[in-house]
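REQUEST ID: PR-0412
SUBMITTED BY: lab tech R.K.
PRIORITY: routine
TASK: structure prediction, single protein chain
INPUT:
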Amino acid sequence: MKIEIEYEASWRNSFLEGSNNEALPKKGRKFIGSITALKKSENYITRDVTHNTVMGILNRLIGEQRKLYQARKDDKYIFQDIESYVTFYDDVKVKNSELVYLRNISGNTDQNSFTGMINSRDTMFTSDYSKEFWDVLALDIDELLEFILGKEDIEESMVLDPLVISDRFAEISKFKPLEENEKLLKILEIFKSYFGDINYKNNKNSVVPLNLYCSALYLQKERLSAKYDLSSALTKSGTITGISKRLFTKKDFMNRFTTGEKKKIFGNPYISKSFVEGEGQVTSMLTKASGILEIVIDINRDRAKELKKMIENAGVSSFYLGKKGLAYVTNIDTREVKK
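STATUS: complete
OUTPUT:
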């Protein structure tokens, strides 16, 4: 028998980790369609019609509401003895790319935004240690390297305000990576003696300045703790709010100084940019396909009529194929299919 299904605008990407053909994890499948997640090329997942897709459709047509993996576990699974006789041809007529905005209902927050009024009189900025501590960020890259190597006097100064400090980190993040040299090797050894084996390099084996500034703050914390009580600058776990040994996270940093909650993300463009050898940077968006899916089941005519009757009794003539693609059953032929 042959079943023809016409579909339109079937989404050909997945925004969740894992598979729909296995049990759902307790915390659900992780959303990987965020801007941050899509920076990793492996999180741009393409989907095509597979054998499992077809079996899921056939189960839907006869009114089966369970997921495919659940139905297959049933001893009375309708297609148990004929799955191997099912073949298909996905005749894609139109395929295009579209820019869509996705909303993550799990409540992710914006990495670089905050809400509420700002308290610039926090103890982190008004204590006896504050000036010496934050002035490290005022150093240019050469001065920073000398500071890490042992120079204690800092002539430059920072305005002690959370927004100014946040903006300074934004500037630092744009500094060009540093090529490894003898001085940098000494600095990395110093950091290793304090903080253990932390990677300060990017994928091109260059040292990232932002990482150095973040660790330099922790180094200054160690140096100043000999004469000041820095407990008001630290969290209960002994870290600096919003600043790790390598990274600065604006939303976490500003969360301490604002009256509002972290700003939730209500949507982001689904765009993946990756480098392909020979092509350069490739931009990928959501792919939608329209066409006709032909399903062929190599069974005798009596079994085909039985299956057709089950489909008719279920009354399912339309359903979703993929994420949003609406599909319609246009033909069910129980005659022998010519091969």
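NOTES: Residues 36 and 285 are 15 Å apart (CA to CA).
REVIEWED BY: pending
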